[in-house]
Amino acid sequence: MKSKLLLFIAILFFTFSINSIAAVKLSIDTLSRSEFITFMKEFVTIAGFKENRPAETFGIIGVEAGAGYEFFNTGKSSVWDEVYGQDTGSNENGIFVHLRKGLLFNLDAGVRYGNLVNTDTNYHSFELRYGIMRGSMLTPAVALTANYTVITGFEDMKGNILGLNLSVSKGLGPWTPYGGIGVQRIMCEPYRVTGLNEEKENVIVKYAGFRFSFTPINYLNLQATIDESVTFSASINFGI
Predict the structure, then answer these.
(1) In 3-state terms, what secondary structure has residue 194?
(2) By 3-state DSSP, what share of the chain in percent is helix, strand and coil, each rounded to 5?
(3) Is the pTM of this model over 0.70?
(4) Which stretch of DSSP H or E encloses residue 160?
(5) Which domain does 180 fall in, by range?
(6) Among 103, 107, 162, 164, which Cα is nearest to 132's?
(7) What digits encode the pLDDT tens for the residues 79-95?
């Protein structure tokens, strides 16, 4: 099992390396303050931390690795065109990998690495989850997740996102539907840009999805995340 997980992760990082060839360097240089704030709120949609899992914690021996794809429709495509410096159409796409491990005291820790496809823009998330209530035949699982995301790869901006999510899920055979609500605080600081200063915005996030288990160690996860726009994400996971 361990060797399969390591091979899976190696293949995923090779995919990220191929994607970085001829990547676009994004810039906020031409945005006004209102456009900058609009872009920040929409950027949370693709770059902000996503649960992509039910609420149940893993336990001390549990570990999970996965990879996925996500996309959303840009509500203000002209702003995204300015950031790209070219026509981007109406959809943005991201790819991501994650690794999670169960800890003592009903805690899980995890890391998530994502990339905005065909750009140098990356988002690295760190999570710490506490299982408030374990699921049973009659009761759902409930968990609270603190998360932190670092945004890199812009030509003239750096940023980070702090978040807190509350999730609930209930297993129904191989299906485990889940949902939750959270808040994401995005903080972006321009540099080498005239007329823009650091901005901070809070975005309420709602999400729902389900996990389908093919086998005890293979499962598919689908999720819709709603904030300033709607992001759809799908991931394949391996775990114990």
Answers:
(1) coil
(2) 15, 50, 30
(3) yes
(4) strand 157-169
(5) 2-239
(6) 107
(7) 888 888 877 777 788 99
What tokens were used for 10?
């190696």
Q: What is the pLDDT of residues 215-237, one digit of tens each?
A: 877 899 999 998 878 899 999 99
Residue 74: predicted pLDDT: 76
As a whole number of angstroms, the distance between CA 63 and CA 102 comes to: 6
Per-residue model confidence (pLDDT) at position 98: 93
**Distance in angstroms (rounded) separating the CA atoms of residues 174 and 212:** 6
CATH code at 171?
2.40.128
Tokens of 26: 């994004």
Other C-beta atoms closer than 10 Å to the C-beta of 14 total 10
Amino acid letter, residue 47: A
Distance CA 48, CA 96 (A): 12
Helix 77-84 to helix 33-47 angle, to the nearest 10 degrees? 90
55-67 pLDDT per residue, tens: 999 999 999 999 9
CB 50 within 8 A of CB 225: yes
End-to-end C-alpha distance for the chain, whole angstroms: 9
Domain count within the chain: 1
